[in-house]
Amino acid sequence: MTFLAECSRSVPIPKLSEVLNKVIWAYQQSCQLKSDLKDASRKIQEIVSQLPEQVNAAQVDLKQLQENLVNCLTFFLICANYISRLEEQENRIQTNLNKYNKRL
Question: pLDDT for 33-55, tens place per residue?
Fold first, then answer.
């Protein structure tokens, strides 16, 4: 019996492919989340970098300052959500890699 025939008999190839596809899908999702997280982080940095000049201005526009702080908090919540989803993808990848290695 050939090596390939022996492997296909002992390890179902479709199952391995299914598990590997899950890993690839989770990795693609994590790449998108990472990109989105970087975008949100840049927006937070833009807002935070403007705060000192707004606070130290001769005429403080409290309405604008309040709006910027609310926007900053909104982006912090978005970032927290992205980080949580990234952790889920990490767990999904790890779980499926373990399944893949067990089936080899």
Answer: 999 999 999 999 999 999 999 98
Residues in the chain: 104
Rounded to 5°, angle at Cα 42 from 39 and 48: 145
The model's pTM is: 0.77
Neighbours of 7 (CB within 10 A): 12
Identify the three-state secondary structure at position 30.
helix
Q: CA dihedral in degrees (6, 94, 14, 26; nearest 10)?
A: -150
**For the stretch 39-58, what's the b/e string if a residue is b when 16 or more beta carbons lie within 10 angstroms of its beta carbon?**
ebeebbeebeeeeeeeeeee
Interatomic CA distance for residues 67 and 73, integer angstroms: 10
Residues 38, 48: Cα–Cα separation, whole Å? 15
